[in-house]
Design brief:
11 helices, 48% helix, single chain
């Protein structure tokens, strides 16, 4: 008992002589959030995700002939006008389109201003050039980009093949089957809805979330990481480069940039613009 009592007294004496530690917690109003360190004045961006009006058939998903619509004939012709008038509410100062430099957008745009290409179904004409003309813009920006995957294949095909040889492209995945049903359903909607209503649907946050999520199914998780690597250097890398191209045409916080891209691209671009401290992402249905 004596030993315990002495020990207790020593501990008590020691604790009483220590300086009290005070933790100062600032008022919540004094705490700065991450956004406080960045400018509130930002270039505004409207990303208009679209299906390809001319159905080039270059994507894995192919639209059945019975579900294709013709934007040059009624009622879709008038619906294009309604869609254009809605997008114009954004008041763009710059328009970026899904085109490579080799497409020679400015040559085609000058021809369009001279009255040519009016019979082209391609959304780059029907939306991009039409809105640029009606807003008297003198430049149309091509912002599409090739992916790192393409460069790797050109520089060292053997290395490229070894990087992705284990990916199982034929794997059965119920989630990819679900995605394909959704894509088929979307094709039907283009006939049943007006183009403006359909564009509001396909450019919603939910549609973009699942539109990108589709790429995370199927072969993605195969090949001991190679499926993920393939997506990174192919699809995600391509869209990162597109995003970088858009940064490079941005000259001022006063810019209002309209981006017309296939909706698969729009799903990733939404993520990038929403995260970027340089841009303000404008929701399609907010105009």
């Amino acid at each position: 008992m004596r030993t315990i009592s002495i020990t207790f007294l020593i501990v008590l004496f020691s604790s009483c002589n220590q300086k009290e530690k005070v933790i100062h917690t600032p008022e919540s109003s004094e705490i700065k959030g991450p956004s406080d360190f960045f400018s509130k004045d930002r270039a505004k961006v409207l990303v208009v995700g679209t299906f390809h009006f001319n159905y080039p058939g270059k994507d894995d998903h192919k639209t059945a002939e019975s579900n294709k619509v013709d934007v040059l004939t009624e009622p879709k012709k008038s619906e294009v006008t309604e869609l254009v008038n809605y997008i114009k509410k954004f008041r763009p100062t710059k328009i970026a389109i899904e085109a490579f430099p080799s497409w020679q957008a400015m040559t085609k745009y000058r021809e369009y201003l001279a009255g040519k290409h009016l019979d082209k179904r391609d959304e780059r004409y029907q939306l991009g050039m039409r809105i640029a003309k009606e807003y008297h813009l003198d430049t149309l920006y091509s912002v599409d980009a090739r992916s790192l995957q393409r460069e790797l294949a050109k520089k060292d095909s053997l290395l490229f093949d070894s990087l992705f040889e284990k990916v199982d492209w034929d794997i059965e995945d119920p989630y990819w089957d679900m995605a394909k049903k959704w894509l088929d359903y979307n094709d039907v909607l283009t006939k049943e809805m007006t183009l403006l209503d359909y564009f509001a649907y396909m450019n919603s946050k939910e549609s973009h979330q699942y539109g990108y999520g589709m790429y995370l199914t199927g072969a993605f998780a195969t090949g001991q990481g190679q499926g993920a690597d393939n997506l990174a250097v192919w699809w995600y890398n391509r869209n990162l480069r597109i995003f970088a191209n858009i940064i490079n045409i941005t000259e001022s916080n006063e810019d209002r940039i309209l981006v017309v891209m296939g909706n698969g691209h729009a799903a990733i671009l939404r993520q990038l613009f929403e995260a970027s401290p340089q841009f303000e992402f404008i929701e399609f249905d907010s105009l």
